[in-house]
Amino acid sequence: MKISILTPTYNRAYILGNLYNSLITNSKTNNNFEWLIMDDGSTDNTKELVNSWIKENKINIKYYYKNNSGKMNALNDLLEYVTGDIILEVDSDDYITDNSLSIIKKDYENLDKSLNIYGIVYPRKLIGSNKHIDKSFEDKTMTLFDMHFKYDLDFDMTITFFASIRKKYKHELENGEKFITEARMYHKMDKDYDGLLIKLDEIIVCEYMQDGYTKNIMKTFINSPYGYYSYFKEILTFDMKKIIFKKRLYILKHYILFSYLTNKTKLECIKQVNGINKLLIMILVIPGYIYSKKSVDKFNKK
Questions:
Q1: Cβ(150)–Cβ(242) under 8 Å?
Q2: What is the pLDDT of residue 301?
Q3: Which single residue of 61, 133, 174, 239 could bond 227 by disulfide (Cβ 3.0 to 4.6 Å)?
Q4: Predicted pLDDT of residue 215
Q5: In the prediction, which pLDDT does 209 show?
Q6: Which pLDDT does position 212 carry in this prediction?
Q7: 21-41 confidence digits (pLDDT tens)
Q8: Cβ contact 229:259 at 8 Å
């Protein structure tokens, strides 16, 4: 069972070696993998660095280059080069734990073949965080939507996919934007399958970098509002009867934020929503637009 590791990267030569070294460590227990790197228009020495690793011939590396178009487009493009059975997406500033690839291989080999799932989800080890997923959820199968909005499983996660399924889906970007939350694609996969199997092994170590999306979330929101608007509008069409109230508010607040950022009028914002959510939007839309304007103005003054 071969694993394809997908890594989009942009100007991360200074830290990409951590992932490379972790893959070399893993190769001692499982060498049946390929590392596919999409260089998203880097202007540093990423190309030279990766080529030097390819010459070392310690692991199977395939390097591709494209003009900068963002992480999601880079992942979309990498799919056509995948030759493995399992896909593991690893950011360029992360690295994998010892024996991660052996753990993944074993978990997939031991899967109940009757499960209608698109992959296995694992927690990530986030440096500086003490969050842990409740052990009672191990070996449960559920959709990503339910994890977040019904059970409030607030943990950093890594999703591994059956390659044959992952190749059917791509990140949908809007209006020429370069970023969209991965969850938009995952929710579409949720509709076609029963979701994901939960395992508790921490297979990836991550630290949010100063130049990453998470540390610059407001900038990401402002630069990519149309995709996020579509995402939250789509969520409002889902069955929300059993989601916890704080998550309903989270969805509504962000829907209002991205309605504002995409220049929708308050009336347009309200019209897109039905049922109890429409009533809540009518209550929240004016203070929401005021707060959104203040947040954007504060960001622009920095």
A1: yes
A2: 85
A3: 174
A4: 53
A5: 62
A6: 52
A7: 999 999 999 999 999 999 999
A8: yes
User: How much helix, strand and coil, in percent to the nearest 5, is found in the chain?
Assistant: 45, 15, 40
DSSP one-letter code for 61 = E
Predicted pLDDT of residue 214: 52
Return the closest-CA partner of residue 172 out of 37, 73, 69.
Answer: 73
E-only strand ranges, the chain: 3-9, 33-39, 61-65, 86-89, 95-96, 119-126, 141-142, 157-162, 196-198, 204-206
Q: What is the pLDDT of residue 34?
A: 98
CB 142 within 8 A of CB 195: yes
Strands 33-39, 3-9: pairing kind = parallel
What is the end-to-end Cα distance of the chain in Å, rounded?
50
Q: Give the chain's residues under pLDDT 70.
A: 128, 130, 208-215
